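User: Can you help me understand a structure? I only have the sequence.
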Amino acid sequence: MISLQFLNFFQNQMNMKKILLSALSVIITVSLYSQSLSLFFNGEPIAHGATVQVLGNPTDDYMQAKAAVKNNSANAIEVMVKKHINADDTLPNTMNVFCWGSCFPPNTYVSPFSILIGPDQVNDTSFYGDYFPNGVIGITRISYIFFDMNNENDSVAFTVEYNASPASVAQNLLTQVNLSDAYPNPAISVVNFGYRLPEDTRKSSIIISNILGARIKEVQLTGVSGKTSIPVGDMVNGVYFYSLCLDDRVVITRKFVVKR
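Assistant: Let's start by predicting it. Here is the structure, written out as tokens:
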């Protein structure tokens, strides 16, 4: 006859095996989905897939986005860069190039060579995205993907919005626009805005960005006047910026606080 003590011992052993298998599964999952590379913009870390804004004037010679790339792994990595542009995301008569050690012509979408980044090292001198507005007003969006040349799936990316809006145009629009201050401020669960826009506005939105310039949310506005409410319950406590964007031009930018 099997003793009760033996049954308890057997059950404990089975439970221990389940715990070990679960822990091993977690470790394998983390290792499968972890990325070796991470990015910094303006000296601060940004999340994979983040959108950042670079502001300038259409008369500027060029606008520049600079990023640093960190190798978080224990091995050196040969890192390459490619740019990706969705249809209609670049404005006509503008030009863009990127640099990865050397600068490449506008029709280059993948860097011709890699740069070796050592384990736990940061390369903060090699990458630039240069945008030439050539007098054109509006926003051009370009994504940059950094990847291990030996494993393209090991990658990290961010999108830059090059926003060329002259102060004179924004000032003229300001006389025709009414955007309320964010309320409540600090916001707990939602933040609200009242607005009145020019009658000829084709598209409009409110963009929320964090203090690093990374876009957190964008809400399209309906009609030329009204009120919109944006949930903030999924945002961490801190200072944020909200921008009113009319026909691809940022007209007003102000601050609000999330505090729960």
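Now, to help you interpret it: The chain has three domains: 1-34, 37-164, 167-258. Residues 61 and 166 are 14 Å apart (CA to CA). Let me know which part you'd like to focus on.
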